[in-house]
Amino acid sequence: QVQLVESGGGLVQAGGSLRLSCAASGNIFSINIMGWYRQAPGKQRELVATITGGGSTKYTASVKGRFTISRDSTKNTVYLQMNSLKPEDTAVYYCYVQSLYDYWGQGTQVTVSS
To answer: Coil, strand, or helix at residue 87?
Structure first.
């Protein structure tokens, strides 16, 4: 059984910062990609950022220069540092892990007030 435990969401004013964390535990082997997706009300889930085991990163255009993804492979943990937050960043953020299978976290709410 695999568990993804997310933390770090919350309410912040526009221009503020938050840091999300996601720790994977259980029978999980050879993690390849770790990342974050988000889903705003009435919208489809979208990719925010991913990072490979080799450290290669990918970001959606709207967060480039503001968000930074990183991982600690020794702890099977992925982080998302979010700076200069905007109201349009408001969404439920989901952790994603790809190994033999795909795994998703339960989601953490991020709300940015204007």
So the answer is: helix
Measured distance CA(79)–CA(49) in Å, rounded: 10
pLDDT number for residue 87:
97
Residue 62 gets which letter from DSSP?
G
Q: Which of 101, 95, 75, 97 is nearest to 6 (CA)?
A: 95
> One-letter amino acid identity for 22?
C
CA dihedral (15, 38, 26, 68) positive or negative: negative
State yes or no: pLDDT of 81 exceeds 90: yes
| Cα gap 110→2, rounded to integer Å | 24
Q: What are phi and psi of 54, to 5 degrees?
A: -85, -5
Percent above pLDDT 90 for the chain: 89
Determine the average pLDDT of the residues in 97-107: 93
Are the C-beta atoms of 93 and 82 separated by less than 8 Å? no
